[in-house]
Amino acid sequence: MKARLRLLRLDILRLTRSTGVAVAVVLLLAIGVYAAWRGGRNVEAAASSAIAAETAYRDQLAYLLSTYPPTTEAGEVLYYLAFPAPQPSLPLAGLARGRTEVETASLRIRLLALEGQLYEHETVNPRLAAAGDLDLAFLLIALLPLFIIALTYDLVSSEREGGTWNLVRLFARPRRLLSLKLASRACLVGALVAVPVAVAASLAGVPLDGRAGWAIALIALHTAFWFALCLGVASGRRSSTANAMILVGTWVGLTLLAPAALSLANAILHPVPEALELTVRQRQGYHEAWDLTKDETMQGFYEDYPEWSGRKVPEDVFTWAWYYAMNHRGDRAAREASGAYRGVLRERERWARRWSLLVPPLAAQLALDRLAATDLEAQLAYQDAVRRHHERLKTYFYPHFFAATPIDAVDWEGVPVFEPAATEESATRAGFPAATALVLASILALAAGSVRRASPPTLRESVGAAKS
Amino acid sequence: MSTWRAGLRNTLLVARRQVGAVREDRYVIFLLGLVIALGVVAVLGARHHAASEAEQRARYQAMVERQWLEQPDRHPHRVIHYGFLVFREEAPLAFFDPGVGAWAGTSLFLEGHRQNTANFGDARHATGMLRFGRLTPATVLALLLPLFVVVAGFASVSAERERGTLRLLLAQGATPAQILAGKVLGTGAVAALAALPIGVAAVAIAGSGAVGPVSPGRIAGLAGIYAAYLVGWVLLTVLASAFRASSRSALAQLIAVWVVLCVAVPRLGASVAGALHPLPSRAEFTAQVERALNEVGDSHNPQDPFFRSLRDEYLARYDVGSVEELPLNWGGVVSREGEAVTSRIHEEQQQDLVEGQRRQDRVLSWAGLFSPYLAARDLSMAVSGTGPEAVEAFRAQAEAHRYDLIQRLNDLHINEIRYENDRAQRLPRDSWAEFPTFGTRPPPLGGALAGRTLSLAALGLWLLLPLLGLGLARTRLARVGVDRAAE
Q1: Gap between the Cα atoms of B307 and B299, Å rounded
Q2: What is the per-residue pLDDT across A145-204, written as a single tens digit (0 to 9) for each?
Q3: Residue A154: φ, ψ to 5°
Q4: Whole-angstrom distance, CA of residue B48 vs CA of residue B55
């Protein structure tokens, strides 16, 4: 056992003595630690954005209450007031940023029609977004496999091409040599994964819960898949260059082509004209009401809020109850399109997750995004939470609209606080399908290799291979 | 003259040798088929997607314009709030290189008192898969073709050396320069073969006029950019093959270079640009705008000091005692002046944001010096008309249109509506039927390229450096031959 460990240490030393490997190790470590630091910064930025929304609300409320006479109707001041709806991000978002670059989790919502406010996005610079971002998940899922390929593509072929394979076959046990070489490489790669993940976890304050456990398991399984694939290919009898081309080709296929092709197919299969439809309808629904009788507008409102149906508004004077009911009419008009819009997006997400199971890097990435609640589904859940919050605010203020309460009679401290979207969905549900897919893919990759090995090369073949 | 001709003959012979070697390699043939198939799928898929998006936008734009005309008779201030919706049209070449379009909003609501942001867009509707990139003709050319060039050319010189045929070639009178030139030509021919179907398909679509008018200058520009970019890869591949001891290490090195230049540096550059110059978040930005607006005042609030002093000024100018006596509608004046002030403040804040984005862009442009992929993509989106400047042009033009629209309506309010019983009056809807319509004017090609000297320089360097390297390799190649012969 001790001798094995010494051999292992020697092999790791031998590996890192190669300039290429040493440079790659240093680069990957540096980028990994950078990505971990950046992830922590992103989580902090999201938190400070939430504080900004909260502060802006306090400031705006104080400003409005001090500039408007105390007898002003609440409805008038509420026209300007934007309520914060900050969704706290999970610490895991520091590892897997997902779509948070484009989406804001700190919307500010006025009591006006919601559909016109719900789809604000983050102040993203489109050029940076187009270049793509580098979070730790991308580094470990997309880039690290290339390093694994570089370490293992000539596991056997280098011995054969160096003329030492037959010596190994005669004097050592090839299987033992292979497992030693694999073990040393796995140690090196394992360290490259563990260090940045540990840094990220401590910087973002990731608690050691089920989510973190599944995230680590997925990263480990994904790394293991690439080892299995490389072993499967490298133990064949092809030349080193053929192995390299096959493995890099597979990497390109799984990491660049399949996701890009699936994204395009998803967009073509599930078009979202509803996005524009709901925008047009919301605007039309609200503005039409200015030319209807007030009673017509209120009828729709009473249907949705029967508790107010006894309270009629006068036809000939402006009331805030009617004004906000008009806004509600805009949301009503967009309701169907808005529901269809969310339906299509959910369908896109389901479709993507189903197909991702066939593509190991995608399966790992999407499951990590799910665990970190940074995916499309999390965004839709957030929008639903904002929708509920808007309803609660309306319920809170409608009595004031109908009673024409002046602003100094409103209990501003009792205004409902935003209740974030729940993220207690079990981590197992997010991680299990992808983990299973990764295990199956690894077994498949290994089996493909051992099927070929089942017919051992004749001595003549081996000699021929060694000569070439 | 005859030595020149002999040189050309040798070069062409080596080139043909290289093409022949590639033809016998089943991996390369398989990859060639794959790249061509992917390119054509990308052209057709991207075209289909772009067409359906464009159709949607055109349909809703027409609907919005119809709704504008079919408005009932309204008070002009009502129309100010009714506003107008504009949809960002993508450039005709967006099917080839969608550029940054997916990350920029699509629909923009223009109304009084506010500057909204454009909402929706491909990236907002995409799943996490988009993080890995998009399948577009431009990606196939800029990301995948270099890898194909590497596979087709990594052994070009090194295999000759490993087989001992390099010495034979030298002995037969081919100079190192001719051999290298021949290898470059041969590998380049194979690369051209892979790129051509994509180019032909793209030009056919662009030329058919189905995507809108495309100037030949833009097509030639794209052809030039990708040709230069790919020639750089061919030169680098042959260079690595000439310099490295074995084909295997040449391949490993070239793949590592590809990963660094095409995958790692672009993303690292974008991440560092974001870290160096962070933008205010949407919540912070809207809060800033709100604070700035609060400092000036609010045109809806008659008690506001800014508007009180405006009133005194008007009363003095027309020498009357109260706003009721003014020969124009005071409510309309307040609305017009208020719009002028809020628009200016919004625009100042917006310009700060845009300036922040430009600072980030500059970091990315410098990163382009280390990544020809970034530089080529930057130039490609500029020529395709899908770069950030096209998005900013849309925003600025839509804002100008908004301001013009609102102030025309305010002028109607000032001149056509009486002050007393203001809100009860309406104007016939013809009053705004003849307002100018909105159409995006894309930024001109020259302007888009003028701001990209860094990317142009990067592409130039990308050609120059491997050429210099090949100049060095030429002398070394001869030495390698002599050294081997002396062994």
Answers
A1: 7
A2: 999 999 999 888 888 888 887 777 777 777 888 888 899 999 999 999 999 999 999 998
A3: -110, 30
A4: 10
User: Are A244 and B252 an interchain contact pair (Cβ–Cβ within 8 Å)?
Assistant: yes
Q: Please name the residue ranges forming H helices in A257-319.
A: 258-269, 274-288, 294-304
B479 by DSSP, 3-state: which?
helix
CA distance A263 to chain B (A): 6
Cβ–Cβ gap A102/B294 under 8 Å? no
Distance CA A27, CA A24 (A): 5
Q: A263 and B130 in contact by Cβ < 8 A?
A: yes
> Chain-centre distance of CA A201, in angstroms?
17
* Measured distance CA(A25)–CA(A185) in Å, rounded: 12
Q: In one letter, which amino acid is A216?
A: I
Tally of CB atoms within 10 A around B133: 19
Taking the Cβ of residue B40 and every Cβ of chain A, the question of whether any pair is shorter than 8 Å is answered with no
Q: Note the pLDDT tens digit of each residue in A100-137.
A: 888 999 999 999 999 999 999 999 999 999 998 889 99
CA–CA gap between residue B320 and residue B316 (Å, rounded): 7
**Using CB atoms, which residue from A123, A154, A246 is nearest to B279?**
A123
- Lowest mean pLDDT segment, chosen from A10-14, A50-54, A448-452, B320-324: A448-452
Whether residue B154 contacts residue B18, with contact meaning beta carbons closer than 8 Å, is answered with no
Q: How far is CA B209 from CA A131, A392, B265, B387, in A?
A: 30, 52, 37, 21
Q: Is B54 on the interface with A (CB under 8 A)?
A: no
- Tell whether A122 is within 8 A of chain B (Cβ): yes
ipTM computed for the complex: 0.90
Q: How far apart are CA A403 and CA B256, in angstroms?
A: 71
Q: Which residues make Cβ contacts (< 8 Å) with residue B438, sequence separation at least 6? A: B84, B86, B397, B398, B401
As a whole number of Å, the end-to-end CA separation of chain B is 36
How far is the alpha carbon of A212 from chain B, nearest alpha carbon, in Å? 19
> How far, in Å, are B73, B195, B213, B380 from residue B138 at the CA level?
50, 11, 19, 8
Q: Does B274 touch chain A (CB under 8 A)?
A: yes
Taking an 8 Å cut-off on Cβ atoms, the answer to whether A262 and B263 are in contact is no
* Interface contact B143, partner A, CB < 8 A: yes
**Residue B111 in 3-state DSSP?**
strand
Residue in A closest to B48 by C-alpha? A268
Do B134 and A264 make contact, defined as CB atoms within 8 angstroms? yes
The alpha-carbon gap from A307 to the nearest alpha carbon of chain B, in Å, equals: 30
Q: What span, in angstroms and rounded, lies between the C-alpha atoms of A436 and A442? A: 10
Which of B415, B437, B417, B414 is CA-nearest to residue B427? B417
Question: Which residues of chain A have a CB within 8 Å of the CB of B59?
Answer: 273
Report yes or no: B80 and A287 within 8 Å, Cβ to Cβ.
Answer: no
Report residue A67's pLDDT band, with 50, 70 and 90 as the boundaries. Answer: confident
- pLDDT on residue A171: 72
Q: Is A123 close to B78, i.e. CB distance below 8 A? A: no
Please indicate if any CB of chain B lies within 8 Å of the CB of A219.
no
Work out the pLDDT band at B298, boundaries 50, 70, 90. low
Could you tell me which of B64, B53, B257 has the C-alpha nearest to residue B147? B257
Residues in chain A closer than 8 A to B256 (CB atoms): 20, 24, 150
* Cα atoms in the Cβ-side hemisphere of radius 13 Å centred on A263: 26
Q: Name the residue type at position B45.
A: G
